[in-house]
Design goal:
about 220 residues, mainly alpha, 12 helices, about 0% strand
Length: about 220
């Protein structure tokens, strides 16, 4: 999508769809509040049990980002999440690093798993200025077929990871370009006028993410 496609009509359509998703957006605000307060998404107590606070966060995150994997997958995922949120890798947060660390989440046949979408969701939670690799967003930007061909259906693991990183870099560039445009700025201004206090303070990149998400439906 280029900046010229963000018209008054598409902005109104987007705001209508975003308004219908207010409950979900409130959940997003709770997720960001948890991370902004430097909490551990995988905190355990003295009995090595997940704390109530961490359980609530994981439930919110699983619901908002549609994490429908098994318990073993989720356990590994939140261990990695913890490393980047409050642990030894908190100063090394990047899409490539997270994607590489999520290789340990093996596929059914035991090969390394290229979790590009869930890597981006973790990254965007830790750094709200970063975009999410979402099907609707990719569709709005015309990148959905490339993602399907070069990542989802690529059989060579090395190429799959290389392509995912390249596509994410392109997604970042697209967001940067959109945020410079007058139409995107107009949308953000209208969004802020209609937003609740908790959603008005979201990063501009997240507001663009919601616009693209709604237009890619």
């Amino acid at each position: 999508m280029n900046e010229n496609k963000i018209t008054a009509e598409t902005i109104l359509l987007a705001l209508k769809r975003i308004s219908a998703a207010d409950i979900s957006i409130s959940k997003y605000a709770e997720i960001q509040k948890f991370i902004n307060e430097k909490n551990d998404p995988n905190e355990h107590d003295e009995k090595n049990q997940l704390t109530d606070k961490a359980k609530k966060f994981q439930t919110l995150f699983n619901g908002y980002y549609k994490v429908r994997r098994n318990e073993a997958w989720r356990k590994k995922y939140y261990e990695v999440f913890s490393d980047y949120a409050v642990g030894k890798k908190k100063d090394k947060v990047s899409f490539g690093n997270i994607l590489d660390d999520l290789k340990q989440l093996k596929t059914k046949n035991g090969s390394e798993s290229c979790e590009a979408s869930f890597a981006s969701k973790m990254l965007a939670t830790l750094d709200p200025a970063k975009p999410v690799l979402d099907n609707n967003v990719l569709t709005a930007l015309g990148l959905d077929r490339r993602f399907s061909k070069e990542v989802s259906n690529e059989r060579n693991p090395k190429e799959k990871f290389k392509n995912a990183k390249a596509l994410y870099a392109e997604l970042e560039a697209a967001y940067t370009e959109l945020l410079k445009g007058d139409s995107a700025k107009a949308y953000i201004k209208i969004y802020d006028e209609k937003a609740t206090s908790e959603t008005k303070n979201m990063a501009d990149a997240k507001k663009i993410d919601l616009l693209l998400w709604s237009l890619g439906q």
